[in-house]
Write a structure and sequence with these properties.
Layout (H helix, E strand, L loop, with lengths): L1 H11 L7 E6 L7 H14 L6 E6 L11 H16 L2 E3 L6 H7 L2 E4 L3 H9 L4 E4 L2 H11 L8 H4 L4 E3 L2 H12 L1 H10 L6 H14 L1
Parallel strand pairs: 1-2, 1-4, 2-3, 4-5, 5-6
Helix pairs in contact: 1-4, 2-3, 2-8, 4-5
Amino acid sequence: RKEEIRKSRRAELGIAYDEVVVLWWSQGLPEVIEEDIEMTQGVIQSLAAPQKSVFIMMLHPKLEDIRKGYLGDISRRMRQCCEASGVRFISPDKIPCEELDLAADTIVTAMSTEGFKSNIMGGPPVVHLLGPATRKWMETELFLEPPHYLPDVLAGESLLAVSQSDIGRILTAAMDSQVRRGLRANWRPPTGKAAEKIAKELIRLAR
């Protein structure tokens, strides 16, 4: 089921079997969104030729609350970065989030529900992009602690990039089949009745 979804959604988006697909789920926090954009532009730049790469952008709807036209501005900036790097840009709609996750080769995000879902489904690996401003915000507002910050990173289920210089190396690791097997082997089902119910539904979808 999982591979069937992956193939059908990639075909729908016009993505070839040999193209490397990175999916970005932005966060919606005004305090750190600009750093999120800059870190993600570093991802795009690391995808430059010779490999054939596709960047899929999914923006948090709350970003439009920051200022009118902000979503369009971010879209324009990311498209321009893709064009400069020779990376194909896609901003899809009307595809279920979980199925879009399965169409990707790697998911990049500061923190998002979709990263959590991908790990549950056995989907593509998640790379958290936590620059200095984001890490400081996490420490002061969420009381999360370095160096791992997030439970899935601490558990070895996801990867972490904390600077622009980290991104290329971490993305390469995320594409490595041995690393991916290790990340999956570290995954443990979430606990708590609500989390368990959601996990079972996602696992059922991906099977």
